[in-house]
Amino acid sequence: MKYYEKDKATVNKWASVFEVMHDTIPVNINDTIYRYIPFGYDFNDVFGHNTKENLFVSKLLKTRKGNCHSLPYLYKILCEELGTTASLALAPNHVYIKHRSIKDGMYNTELTSGIFPIDAWIMASGFVHIDAIRNGVYMKALNNRESIALVLIDLADNYNVKFPNNDGTFMLKCCETAIKEYPNFVTALILQAETHKKQMKKEQNQEKSKQMLFDLEKEYAHIHEIGYRNMPEDMYLNWLVSLKTERDKYENKNLNTFNKK
Fold first, then answer.
1. Core-most of 64, 113, 149, 229, by most CB within 10 Å?
2. Residue 52 belongs to some domain of the structure
3. Does the residue 14 lie in any domain?
């Protein structure tokens, strides 16, 4: 199905990047047909517990296997290299893409499975509280400054792994900057609280330690109040697979037709 709205050039760029990432494409070079193999999902060490490099875009480019972290990041990079935009969005333990077109309005692009899911799929995880949506914790189309906040917390998280005995100063500076741009960025809020907790355990002054505990309890209470609920990793993987096993239930049929033109 052709797309004829006035944002056709932009939508075609999105479709082109999606095709490069998910479709096998015949390429004619000097009258020889080669098969371009798309990127795939790597179920090995999805959360980067063994090595944080498994979450990196550089690893994705090298192995052509990625996850819900590196795949949407690369998609956004490619879109911007083509002079268009792509908004990152968050779900529990997950990153995906949101676009807005004239014809279809706001819609989701899921890079891990190559499907365009409706919002009901995000809600089906069972860990998206209505307050989290209302407060922009999840399902919000992030602007570029908020997206950079995500990368800044990636930096802090990796720094913490490389230098586990750090005093927390660098971590907290990263968290402070990220939260300034994205106040309800729950990953940054959790990292900030966990860093304060680590500092509290090392504090020798009893009165100061008592005040730090009081402040820490307020931080965790705030995280709960804005709607965050912890999603177990095994449940996340089952939810992720459900998009393919229950594709007919969660797929945006109009977009599926467009992208099979």
1. 149
2. yes
3. yes
Q: Which burial class, exposed, middle or buried, applies to 103 when counting CB atoms under 10 A from its CB (0-12, 13-18, 19+)?
A: middle
Average pLDDT over all residues of the chain = 94
Distance CA 211, CA 194 (A): 16
Tell me if 108 is assigned to some domain: yes
Q: How far apart are CA 110 and CA 124, in angstroms?
A: 15
Contacts of 224 (CB under 8 A, 6+ apart): none
What's the total number of domains in the chain? 1
- Residue 84 belongs to domain spanning: 1-128+253-261
Sequence-separated (6 or more) residues with CB below 8 Å from residue 11: 3, 5, 101, 103
**H-run or E-run covering 106:** strand 105-109
Q: Is residue 97 classed as helix, strand or coil in its secondary structure?
A: strand
CB 92 within 8 A of CB 127: yes
Per-residue pLDDT reduced to its tens digit, 8-57? 999 999 999 999 999 999 999 999 999 999 999 999 999 999 999 999 99
pTM over 0.85: yes
| Residue type at 113 in one-letter notation | S
